[in-house]
Amino acid sequence: MTxxxxxxxxxxxxVAFLPEHVASLVKKEFVVLVEKGAGDAAFSSDENYVEAGxxxxxxxxxxxxxxxxxxxxxxxxxxxxxxxLISILxxxxxxxxxxxxAGDGVTSYSLDMIPRSTRAQSVDVLSSMATVAGYxxxxxxxxxxxxxFPMFMSASGTIKPSRVLxxxxxxxxxxxxxxxxxxxAVVEVFDVRAAVKEEVLSLGGKFVEVEGAKxxxxxxxxAVEQSEEYKKKQAELIQQxxxxxxxxITTAQIPGREAPVLITKETVTAMSPGAVIVDLAASTGGxxxxxxxxxxxxxxxxxxxxxxxxxxxxxxxxxxxxxxxxLNFLNLMIDGAGKVNLDVEDExxxxxxxxxxxxxxxxxxx
Length: 366
Prior knowledge:
alpha/beta; globular
């Protein structure tokens, strides 16, 4: 079995597999082809890959010769019938891509469709990358904030600690909480899921709770759409806390839908000049009404940073985490002899498989 690793496009510094992952694949007797320069932005040279046992190949050569292709973002080129693509496809919002893969006869797996379960944690790319995003969002906010995060006491007086409001207590939100607390900030966290309250408190945050939230078990740990009455109470409470915050970090997303608007124009106007909003949901519309994806906007002295790809700014460790997820996923697809055996009955393999035998087979997409 030949595995191909593609170089990502401009603006993406990560790579699906680092040389250390390639070494593991070679031990399992896979032939590994790596596109020239694939790891440059993640500080892994072609020489490093060759030392690990890979063959450096052109992109066209990989798409032609590899039986299984790994990438972070789906390649724009047509993949030949019968080949396997493992990537992060965003299939819930990219119907044309899914239809094309089915039409081309490609067997495709999208690791952003991993079920939220204990067994799936080792292959959960969303959680891995959310960890990076939560950490980096606080550092970026601290750099943009015209004041300190921690409290300082000196002969020249006492500086109060910054106040941070985090919207969404998923993996990114909890990592942002932990990082902000380490920097000495006072942190409040809002989430519609009451089940995360204990985690917030254990990390030193204060949980902001709105009564009457719908918390559906069937959502697999994600947030769900709420009633209009709840949204009204939520908006009022968020505004009250946002206008007192020096930093707001937003992480709330609903799979397959636009991100809910939690910070309105009016809220931004009421915030103190110099405050910073970091919107991690920018690629799906943003949690702030004024967010622009991949841009920094200043409105009334408030800086709004729209970035949904902080993981790319930490390419070495982000690639290491991502490569581990990919390796763990591949282990679910090979038998004891190291041969690929697509176990369609395995829950993780089943729920991540998007297309096979010329058809869209994923139940959520159907």
